[in-house]
Amino acid sequence: MDKPLQTSSRASKHGLSKKIEKNKLHKRLRRETGRAVDDFSMIDGGDRIMVCISGGKDSLTMLDILLSLQAHAPIQFELVAVNLDQKQPGFPEDVLPGYFESLGVEYTILEEDTYSLVTDMVPEGKTYCGWCSRFRRGILYTHAKQHGFTKIALGHHRDDIIETLFLNLFHGGKLKTMPPKLLSDDGENVVIRPLAYCSEADIERYSKITNMPVIPCNLCGSQDNLQRPMIKEMLKTWNKQQPGRLENIFRAMSNVVPSHLLDTNLYDFGDTKTVEKLNVVNLQP
Ligand code: SF4
After folding, report:
1. Ligand 1 centre and the CA of 12: distance in Å?
2. Looking at the predicted structure, is the pLDDT value of residue 281 above 90?
3. From CA 95, how far away is CA 98, in angstroms rounded?
4. Whose CA is nearest to atom 1 of ligand 1?
5. Confidence of residue 285 (pLDDT cuts 50, 70, 90)
6. What is the pLDDT of residues 222-264, one digit of tens each?
7. Binding site membership of 128 for ligand 1 (Cβ less than 6 Å)
8. Which atom from ligand 1 is nearest to the alpha carbon of 88?
């Protein structure tokens, strides 16, 4: 007779602790997003923001948090969720419209069969992801221009930014990553990454605990190149061996001392005045 009571009290305790965890995660994600939006002046009053939704955990979390910020912001801005259905086999086309309607957010679903284009042009055995993403970006950016969007929001997070730094370092010989705010090459689109300060672990947990209808990005069976997963694994190992290392790397990106690097395009090292100035900087701790 006692057992059902114990089970139900355990279940209600579990429900309560899940609710507490969900609130904590929501608060942290909102705080970090607000901080990034502020630090990089991502959103202005009157902005019409195209929120790019792939259906993955990152973009769905970005939409959730931006809607929450919008509800409490002292300025007015518009959010429109935009998904591009690229006609990958197995893509569940009803999931996102149903979810957007449940949130009451304005949305647009674009349809372009880039999947057939990519499979036709990419040789057998090679990955489709590079071309697939290029087509996606082109279509979304054109849509933004044609429909008066002032900003394009992408769901990249802190871990994507750290991984990209190492990808560029190891494979591109460059010291750069994905900036939280960026003007496109043609100067027509402002791209923002509101989750720039949020960790992937928080996003993953939040998307699970809120039962977001996450659609995996590998339904088409293609695999992105293996460089990013390798970097991800390397960073995971480092973080296990020395907790806090990722935070340090991330902090370093906001604390750059260009004069202490070797880029002769930044400083004329042949100019005495420049070198004198650099020496002064060198004396500082
Ligand atoms: S996994 Fe498929 S849908 Fe995702 S980027 Fe690669 S090719 Fe495109």
Report:
1. 40
2. no
3. 5
4. 218
5. very low
6. 766 678 899 999 999 999 999 999 999 999 999 999 989 999 9
7. yes
8. 3
* 25 within ligand 1 shell (Cβ under 6 A): no
Q: How far is the CA of 127 from the centre of ligand 1 (A)?
A: 9
Give the mean model confidence (pLDDT) for residues 96-100. 98
Place of tokens 């020395």: 242
Helices (H), the chain: 2-39, 57-72, 95-103, 114-121, 129-146, 158-167, 200-209, 227-241, 245-252, 272-283
Q: Does residue 132 line the site of ligand 1, with CB under 6 A? A: yes
Quote the pLDDT of residue 1: 47
- The pTM score is 0.90
Contact 181, 194 (CB under 8 A): no
Which residues have CB under 8 Å from 130's CB, separation 6+?
Answer: 225
pLDDT tens column, 2-23: 556 566 777 787 888 889 999 9
For residue 72, CA distances in Å to 67, 68, 77, 104, 118 come to 9, 7, 11, 16, 42
CATH class of residue range 17-225? alpha beta
Q: Which of 127, 129, 140 to probe ligand 1 with, by most ligand atoms within 8 A of CB?
A: 129
Domain definitions of the chain by residue range: 17-225
